[in-house]
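Assess this one:

_____
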Amino acid sequence: MVRAADRPARYSVWRQEKPRRGGRSGGQLSGLDRDRITEVSVRLLDAEGLAKFSMRRLAAELNVTAMSVYWYVDTKDDLLELALDAAYGEMELPDPTAADAEWRAQLRELAEQYRAVLVRHPWVSPLVGRYLNIGPNHLAFSRVVQQVVRRTGLPVHRLTSTISAVFQFVYGYGTLEGHFDTRSATLGMSRDEYFRHAVAEVSETPACAEVLQESKELMEARGGDTVEEMMERDFTYALDLLIAGIEALVERG
């Protein structure tokens, strides 16, 4: 019997040689390929969340045996890694080499695209730090981010810090926004209904009500009649601050 400690450490699905198309498992024609498996995995994760996702559940959705799925991937981690990279593939990346390329506009575009993925797929954020993320779509995203940030004029030794400042902000913002949407849907409410419900609940707690009263002026000054408008304004202005900071550092030399 092979002990867990004796098994080779898992590296990445992108370093494994598994058939991508066709093939048989257990004598049954599976009719599967990795693209279809990945597509259905993404759909299940969107519908049911990360906690309920399993090889057995995926096989049932595909109407095949679990062994048929194992012909293409070794573990559930493989499936999650494939789904994660597929989510990155939804972004329409700008071309940093275009004649009219402008780093500010392209940095905004990348930030907005990344935020949209995190909000559209709330299961993405907890997976980002779990894997090496060496899939083709993530590598393409990372490469374009580096190319755009290089054009800011900042010295090379400051580029990784700049990328962290911008995209860790987007990661945090998009993650919380995705959680907000998940919570709203779980309660059967729209964004605005849940926001009003949350404010009403907080207002009934004395300690929370005091804090809420202190922040009332900030909330009113924030502007926006809907949750979407408020979130858009906050995100846009926060991104403005980051870009202004980059410009200031470039001017400072």
